[in-house]
Specification:
Largest sheet: 5 strands, mixed
Oligomer: single chain
Order of helices and strands: EEEEEEEE
Strand content: 25-35%
Distance between the termini: 57 Å
Length: about 200
């Protein structure tokens, strides 16, 4: 049979102006291989105890093996300080090869009631023995505080490249930019302070 392989370059995903292709291998897909493509990615790392109804738990599961996966399930385990405080399992039924299921796992079914550090572990599994179990899990972390809502855990976790446009042609005034972040509070409260931090690489 004649086989054609096409490479697509989508710069909208990463914003790069180049691409590289190297070390290509064609191999047989494993018979059974479930994969969690994406799981809960929280909008913030720290949540005040009073604003916890904005947390949800989900996972997108794909079968990248050659066989249908029967009795596919996704389990959710939440730990606080190393101790399990919540478990949940959602049944997906049959997962077809390269079919994507989109369950919403335990959405708002568990909201922490105490201040502390939490981790979530999601695991996809079926009746078959998975050939590559390392991609069956996804773990995330968040913290519950008394009053702090924060995007990062006290470290610089973001980056930004920006270019100022030229000065206005008529007024000659140099252009400027404003940066802002949006914080959504599902429950009414009073904000007493806002803190933003930038590292020393500004120029």
């Amino acid at each position: 049979a004649n086989v054609t392989i096409t490479f697509l370059w989508d710069m909208t995903q990463q914003g790069f102006f180049y691409w590289q292709v190297d070390d290509i291998s064609l191999i047989d897909a494993p018979g059974n291989d479930l994969q969690i493509r994406q799981a809960s990615s929280f909008n913030f790392y720290k949540y005040p105890l009073s604003e916890l109804d904005s947390i949800g738990y989900y996972a997108f599961v794909t079968s990248v093996g050659a066989n249908d996966q029967y009795n596919t399930r996704v389990s959710l385990e939440i730990k606080e300080a190393g101790s399990t405080v919540f478990t949940d399992t959602t049944a997906l039924g049959i997962t077809l090869p390269y079919g994507i299921d989109s369950p919403l796992i335990g959405s708002r079914a568990y909201l922490p009631s105490t201040i502390g550090s939490y981790t979530t572990l999601m695991t996809a599994f079926s009746d078959s023995t998975d050939g590559l179990p390392y991609n069956n899990t996804n773990s995330n972390a968040f913290a519950v505080t008394d009053s702090v809502l924060a995007v990062e855990n006290g470290v610089y976790g973001g980056s930004l490249i920006t270019y100022l446009p030229a000065a206005d042609a008529l007024s000659g005034v140099a252009a400027s930019q404003e940066w802002a972040n949006i914080f959504f509070l599902p429950n009414a409260d009073t904000v007493t302070s806002i803190t933003a931090a930038f590292d020393g690489a500004l120029s």
